[in-house]
Design a protein that fits this description.
By secondary structure, the protein is mainly alpha-helical. It contains 6 helices and 3 strands, in the order H-E-H-H-E-E-H-H-H. Strands 1-3-2 form a 3-stranded antiparallel sheet. A hairpin with a 6-residue loop joins strand 2 and strand 3.
Amino acid sequence: MENNVRCEMSQSESLIMDYLWKNDGGKGFSEIMEYLNGELHKNWKKQTINTFIRHLIDKGLISADTSQKSRRYSAALTTAQYARGRANKILADYYDGSVEVFISALTGGKQLSKQAADELDELMKGEIE
């Protein structure tokens, strides 16, 4: 993941991201607007949606393809990449970037069971999907 990607978004921005994640191949502005106002009943004006899209582009979360007659918007990263970026941000912001401090906070300072420790060890080695 690129360093200039900000893995944070508002609830309104997440509606657009969810739509783009579910629909590969990019969507035009009118399709996004129809989804938000038609299916989700948001009744947002063009400028409001444009602002959300601009924020998502600025954060590096979506890209705009201008090679066609009308602009197409696509998610710039997968949901898994976003989740990893978000988790790393939480680690950095609240736990000084330390997995150990996070685990300690998560367990309340209690010792992990052997099974939980083994599962974490496997995760850290990348063996669990």
